[in-house]
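In this section we walk through a basic example: taking a raw amino acid sequence and producing a predicted 3D structure, encoded as discrete structure tokens. The instruction is simple. Fold the sequence below.
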Amino acid sequence: MVIPFRRVERAAAPWVRTRLRSAPGAALALALLVAVTACLAAAFPRAVERYEDAGLRRSVEQAPHFRSVVQLSAPAPMTVEMPQDEREELLRPATVKYDYDSILGTVRRPFVPDLGQSSYGAATSVNHEVPDPWLPRPSGLPARVALVAQAGMADHARLDEGRLPRASGTVTAKTPEVEAAVSADTAKSLRIRVGSVLHVSSAGPDTLDVRVTGIVAPRDRDGAYWTADPLLRTPALTRAVPADPNSPQYWLGALLLAPEAAPALLRIEELPHRYWRLAPAPDTLHHRDLGALESAVASLESGPSLQQVRDAADPRMESSTDLDEVLASHSRLRSGLSTLISIAAFGSGTVAVVVLVMAGGLAADRRRTELALLRARGASLPGLTARLLAETAVVAVPAGALGLAVAMWALPGARTSPAVLAALAVTVVACAALPLRAAAAHRRVRIPALRQDVTSVRPSRRRTVAELTLVTVAAAAVVTLRRQGTSGGPGDQLIAAAPVLVGVIAALLLVRLYPFPLRILAGPAGRLRGVVSHLSLARAGRSSASAVLPLLALLTALTTASFGGSVLAGIGEARDHSALLAVGADARLRSPVDSLPPGLADRVRRVPGVQEVTAVSIAYRTKSNDGHQAVPVVGVDPGGYAELTRRTGLGAFSEGALKKGRSGSGAGAVLPAVASPSVADAQGSAPFPVSMEDGSSVTVRIVLVRDITPAVTGADFLVVDRAGLGATAARPSTLLVTGPEADGRALREAARNAVSVHLRADERARYLDSPLQSGVERLYTAAVAAGAGYAVLALLLSLLRAAPERIALLARLRTMGLTRSQGRRLLVLESLPQAVLAAAGGVLTGWAAIRLLSPGMDLAAVALPLSTAPPEQTPLHPDAWSLTVPALAVVAVTVGIAGVQAWWAGRRGAVRELRAGDTK
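The resulting token sequence is shown next.
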């Protein structure tokens, strides 16, 4: 009987399931690390995009609507060019609406008009006089009005009185009377009531009677419908000659006609115009479309889109807008912040990658004996690497997906692809760290566990070449940043990596150098009584050759923390200084009339938190000897004002400067003065007369020149002793209050609405202008916090890596009489050199990075609004707290972890660590 051959299948436990069951704690820790890192990596681009979009929308929304709307207009043809009935037809609402729809069809994305705030209609091209005597005439000139027939009034206004205007029958150019409405502000200022009739004159003999049937109030007072032409909502008191401040004034308002009454405009002028105002929809504005948006606006202003509009509506169509300038201003702000954002991303990202690699290295070291045995039994390197990759991917891929989902849920409204790529990069690094580290360590089959300290592993030539390459790249990045600054450009990514590269180079150099001084110190320590000092120095000097990764993580984190902390401190200092320049002290109380109310200074001194009150008189409309230059003259008490200048640092001078050199008395006295550079250049050092506002005259001589002074914010000023001025000119008009903790509410109550109160704290709070600026500040704070967290984790991983060896060492030494306190000191002293090295290196690299890169960094863009940024640069400088606090924290954490390790080793028995066959 022949028994058929049957192939016997070997039973084998699945690799991945077996390995995960054997070490569930390590798998859970890896999953948590990957999930958190992937979440942070995915959240970063989404947060940046949200801040950029919010900043762009704020820039457009804060711009006046007459600047942000795109206005298209076309004049009515002359009579000789077109019959009168056709000209009337062009002004009728159906025709204007048809042209509006045609214009909307030619507008290309990403410029999307807001249909709720866009408007169209017809209006007069000039403002016409209304000779009715009952209208107000502030300077004797009759009021003028603009007649506007704008569509959609019923949807954008509510009636206060009367009814909306209507058109009876078919209105033509010969219609003598039409109905209109006016805004509540116009009715109040021009004394218009429901039923009033205004006789609008023209250049010819005809007049148009306009009967007011209603007074309306805007539903959205600040919307583009009403403010694209502010005259629709609010009348203006206008001068006949705008450039002449002494020119007579007249009132200018708007009469809101029904759209069907637009042909009546032809009765009073030849060329009324049609207009279409396109307001951008804020919800459709995205920073990623900024380039295309600028192109679309430019095309609509004077490009192909405008030509399409002319072909579709009117060949004489003209376009105007300042939206392109608003977009350019936002673009300049974003370019000034882009490198700062990139520096935060590179710093925290580098530390996170190092921690992921360290986690993989820790797992490879923990399983070194197992993997070496598998290689000795015939396992191929590709097969072993593939199994480790699968084992890690089973944990890391779901964790990375979970982190991505959390980031997308927490930060909605941004693009998905950058977040997915960031989370994918984290997951790939986490998956590849263990297999690649194991492949590098076991590419050759070795049975014994060789020593891996710096005494046996010498740096290879490849490592030397790599380090020199990094030195070259870092130097190039620093030089590029110092020359180019943060203005943007193709080298921004390299520039942003410069602080990290400085930390990388420092780590590589310190790892090479630090064992030598420890070995030198180990000799004298060996002659001391006790074995702990000598043994700890000897073991620290033989630290593992792989210590470059923990040191790299610590130095990079410390450099990033120092750099980010200095940026945040610099932002705060820039805002404080700018607020101080604007107010002159912690608070300023200024009278809108000539002098302060009596007793105000005493009431202010009693306000809680007030330390000092300095009264000054400021005369803004004085004249120097040339009779043309208006120089503000500040009358002060020399002692109190000199102390204020020293305390604030704004043009400090001594009390004697305003008294020394004073000659004469009474009207003939020559008053010493502190002047601005421009006034000093114009007047010189000789005495010259100054005519005061009250008609008196004083003679002053400039004895000191200062760039700024607390009392005034302009570039021209003279500061003199108030005792030398006349009685009227010496009356205080401003109080400068010193006291950071002064109660603002109590100050306003003390002022009793008689003077204006301007607080330095309120001025500083106003500087947080754009969501993009506040976003960058938050990102820097988050980057510093994340870098610090990963640095602590890197330190913990490095100590965990050496934990088995240290515990075994303590167990052996305890059998030889080492006490628990000595064991604790041994672990602390062994860990302390690396911690002190990392702390000192972090302080030095952080200081060096800031000093090297500060000439190319300007914090004004992130600290202050563009409208209030000072003309001089706001450079970055090292902040002592940002340099020292993270470094001391590293030392404290190291000592704490070493102490916990010693305590845990003391609780475990020595038998377990000294079992037979122990190879540690």
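Looking at the output, two observations stand out. Residues 5-13, 916-920 have pLDDT under 50 and may be disordered. The longest strand covers residues 207-218. In the next section we compare this with other chains.
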